[in-house]
Design brief:
16 helices, BirA Bifunctional Protein, domain 2, alpha+beta, 5-stranded mixed beta sheet, 8-stranded mixed beta sheet, 430 residues, Rossmann fold, elongated
């Protein structure tokens, strides 16, 4: 075992896993761009106050799980546990024109108990849209995420939607809920026995059996919504229906962060274990800009865990995402100069190409070619060099490659003129 390992709850991503992550980010970036969301990149650490705002109900993510440290200048900083508060801090700082629609990809750090699908560093794809309270914006944001999942081929991602109300109706609900919980406090899980009074909403979020049992009979947020919140919710759900986005109401979806108002939503993968099946979620946070010192500005967004999405893809057997096999491996038996020139030429022509180094034997280079996953080996020996030719050998068929009658099968090979290389590869591979 090496002296150092990646810290508990973190993972090194490389090979197929990294290729899948790359593919997810690329697909997400494209969808975000089509909907006019621009990329935002903000620091991985912030003043701790950006996340710990000291108002409302504190979430575990912020009270218990945050990585907080002091820098050499004595500043209290925190590694970002999520993306939203940083984006809102950037909004308040720069005051861009609204609506400000942005997307991001970021690591997020939470000191959680590591397990499959739950890490201390995970990665999120997300969007935030600031400056409009229009329910159509809620619909746009939710539909963007639904379309992303659908585009990946996920069939078992269930959308759950709720409304958290606003400053005018939420306090009343909290009191009703607290009264209900007070009468049954003895039945709650050990943690919430101690904290229900301070944070009654968190009980609704608790994944432990005693709290789940108590929750079943709890008053529903839906019955406490004021007329404007009820109207907003009705317009959001009507919009989702109009776009054909399937959804289900979840009366107790309060989400694990403290800033939500009105719409909250979550996608659960029914192909994953219930404890870690949240593949993405978000909602409105119409008071957060003010909490961070900006002018009253509504906002909505979501974050989707890349690792969880990949687990869901795997569970639904969508394993080919990100698979982009190497196209050509150049085997050079003339000293390496040909491999240098041909890989350069192929890459300029838009083919992915690799080669061996260190002037290895034919056997060793072919082994390397095979291990690389390349579809075609382009072999140059002294004879090819003398006659300005190359030998192409098909190593394997790419998924989805033209494989019908007349297409060369794996193992077949052909000597062609060096000048015809790109055109022949085009016919073989594209
Ligand atoms: P969140 O639900 O805390 O929301 O996290 C978003 C997503 O990140 C989750 O749905 C899940 O897929 C993934 N995730 C969270 N924690 C972990 C973990 N420990 N390991 C692996 N994946 C994890 C937010 O962070 C909000 N900022 C979302 C939002 C954006 N709301 C409004 N705008």
């Amino acid at each position: 075992m090496s002296a150092f390992q990646a810290p508990a709850g973190t993972r090194d991503l490389y090979g197929v896993d990294a290729a899948r992550l790359e593919a997810l980010v690329a697909r997400f970036a494209r969808r975000a761009r089509l909907a006019a969301y621009g990329l935002v990149v903000s620091p991985m650490f912030e003043d701790v106050g950006v996340f710990r705002r000291g108002v409302g109900e504190a979430s575990e993510v912020v009270t218990k799980e945050m990585y907080v440290f002091e820098d050499k200048g004595g500043r209290q900083l925190a590694l970002r546990p999520e993306g939203t508060a940083s984006v809102v801090r950037a909004f308040v700082q720069h005051r861009p024109v609204v609506p400000w629609k942005v997307w991001y990809v970021t690591p997020a750090f939470r000191y959680e108990r590591p397990q499959a699908g739950r890490y201390r560093q995970h990665h999120q794809l997300g969007v935030e849209a600031l400056g409009s309270a229009d329910p159509d914006l809620d619909v746009e944001v939710i539909a963007l995420l639904a379309g992303f999942y659908e585009g990946l081929g996920l069939r078992r991602a269930e959308l759950r939607v709720n409304s958290m109300g606003d400053a005018s109706c939420m306090p009343a609900y909290r009191s009703v809920l607290a009264a209900y919980l007070g009468a049954r406090a003895g039945e709650l899980c050990a943690e919430h026995k101690a904290t229900w009074e301070r944070n009654p909403l968190r009980v609704l979020d608790c994944k432990r059996a005693p709290c789940i049992a108590v929750r079943a009979g709890a008053p529903r947020l839906a019955d406490s919504l004021c007329a404007p919140c009820a109207e907003h919710f009705a317009r959001v759900t009507a919009g989702l229906d109009a776009l054909g986005v399937g959804w289900r109401r979840d009366d107790f979806l309060v989400r694990g962060l403290d800033y939500y108002t009105r719409t909250t939503f979550e996608f659960a993968s029914l192909a994953l274990d219930a404890a870690q099946n949240g593949i993405g979620g978000g909602g409105r946070y119409d008071g957060l800009v003010e909490q961070l010192g900006g002018p009253a500005t509504p906002g909505i967004g979501f974050g989707s865990g890349i690792e969880r999405v990949l687990l869901a893809c795997e569970a639904e057997s969508l394993a080919t995402i990100g698979e982009q096999p190497l196209e050509v491996f150049v085997v050079d038996l003339t000293g390496g100069g040909e491999a240098r020139d041909i890989t350069g030429e192929l890459r300029r022509a838009g083919f992915s190409a690799d080669r061996a180094f260190d002037d290895r034997s034919l056997k060793s280079q072919l082994k390397h070619a095979d291990r690389s996953g390349a579809q075609v080996a382009c072999i140059v020996g002294p004879e090819e060099l003398a006659t300005a030719t190359v030998t192409l050998r098909r190593l394997r068929l790419a998924p989805g490659a033209p494989g019908g009658l007349g297409a060369p099968g794996a193992g077949s090979q052909e000597r062609i003129a060096r000048g015809a290389l790109a055109a022949t590869l085009d016919a073989w591979l594209r």
